[in-house]
Automatic annotation (TrEMBL):
<dbReference type="GO" id="GO:0003677">
    <property type="term" value="F:DNA binding"/>
</dbReference>
<feature type="modified residue" description="4-aspartylphosphate">
    <location>
        <position position="54"/>
    </location>
</feature>
<feature type="domain" description="Response regulatory">
    <location>
        <begin position="3"/>
        <end position="118"/>
    </location>
</feature>
<dbReference type="GO" id="GO:0006355">
    <property type="term" value="P:regulation of DNA-templated transcription"/>
</dbReference>
<keyword id="KW-0597">Phosphoprotein</keyword>
<dbReference type="Pfam" id="PF00072">
    <property type="entry name" value="Response_reg"/>
</dbReference>
<dbReference type="InterPro" id="IPR011006">
    <property type="entry name" value="CheY-like_superfamily"/>
</dbReference>
<dbReference type="InterPro" id="IPR016032">
    <property type="entry name" value="Sig_transdc_resp-reg_C-effctor"/>
</dbReference>
<dbReference type="GO" id="GO:0000160">
    <property type="term" value="P:phosphorelay signal transduction system"/>
</dbReference>
<dbReference type="InterPro" id="IPR036388">
    <property type="entry name" value="WH-like_DNA-bd_sf"/>
</dbReference>
<dbReference type="InterPro" id="IPR039420">
    <property type="entry name" value="WalR-like"/>
</dbReference>
<protein>
    <submittedName>
        <fullName>Response regulator transcription factor</fullName>
    </submittedName>
</protein>
<dbReference type="InterPro" id="IPR001789">
    <property type="entry name" value="Sig_transdc_resp-reg_receiver"/>
</dbReference>
<keyword id="KW-0238">DNA-binding</keyword>
Length: 225
């Protein structure tokens, strides 16, 4: 059974959340509801497996500070909101949240995010992927189409020769793309020296989905532009 707590400054949302999110057959149980992170951490919420945290609370706190406080106490964090504010979503992920889910009448996606977070896995949702792609801050490198595709393929597990085959280019050209990717991340102050580093950057920036693993080479038309 996965224990869940929630922080939201809308009491109506909190009131309906247990029945909506965690019916008897869901494998989830809501153990704490709070209107602020301080309230959550004073109660049973600090012992939850996962905390659902609204990115925008009316108490003057920031989502980055809230995520950091909760994760430091132990629970994993999934952030939520009815409005997809790119800056707040990205701030929450950088502070340690494992996913962001848009509030909707269908709880399927948020349950999946909670289950992934309970296992300490990141979970990419369409809203999160869009926010990461839309992030134009200096810490997010501007990659060309070729660089983005080479990063996606290499970070998914392919060898350099297979990346080149997929792109329809020579291995030296594919290596050049990845060298430029590494340099751009390095300039942005984000580690990208190892293959594991590159996979983490690709996941953080929405270039690669967490479940993506490419098992074998297959030809791909040359990427241009």
């Amino acid at each position: 059974m996965i224990t869940v707590a929630a922080v939201d400054d809308d009491p109506l949302v909190l009131q309906g959340l247990p029945a909506w999110l965690a019916p008897a057959d869901s494998g989830l149980v809501v153990i704490e509801l709070a209107q602020s992170v301080d309230e959550l951490l004073r109660g049973r919420g600090r012992d939850a497996d996962v905390v659902l945290l609204d990115v925008w609370l009316g108490d003057g706190s920031t989502v980055g500070d809230n995520v950091a406080a909760v994760t430091e106490a132990g629970p994993a964090v999934v952030t939520i909101s009815t409005q997809d504010h790119t800056d707040l979503i990205v701030e929450s992920i950088e502070a340690g949240a494992l996913s962001y889910v848009h509030k909707s009448p269908d709880p399927t996606e948020i349950r999946a995010a909670v289950r992934a977070a309970a296992a300490r896995h990141k979970f990419m949702t369409p809203a999160l992927a869009f926010a990461l792609r839309s992030d134009q801050r200096p810490t997010r490198p501007s990659l060309s189409l070729q660089e983005t595709e080479s990063l996606r393929l290499y970070a998914s597990g392919l060898r350099m020769t297979d990346v080149a085959r997929r792109l329809g280019v020579k291995p030296s050209t594919a290596k050049g793309y990845l060298d430029r990717v590494r340099a751009k991340y390095d300039d942005a102050g984000r580690a990208a020296r190892t293959k594991l580093d590159l996979r983490e950057r690709a996941l953080e920036d929405g270039i690669l989905r967490p479940s993506t693993t490419v098992l074998g080479p297959r030809p791909l038309r040359r990427v241009t532009g």
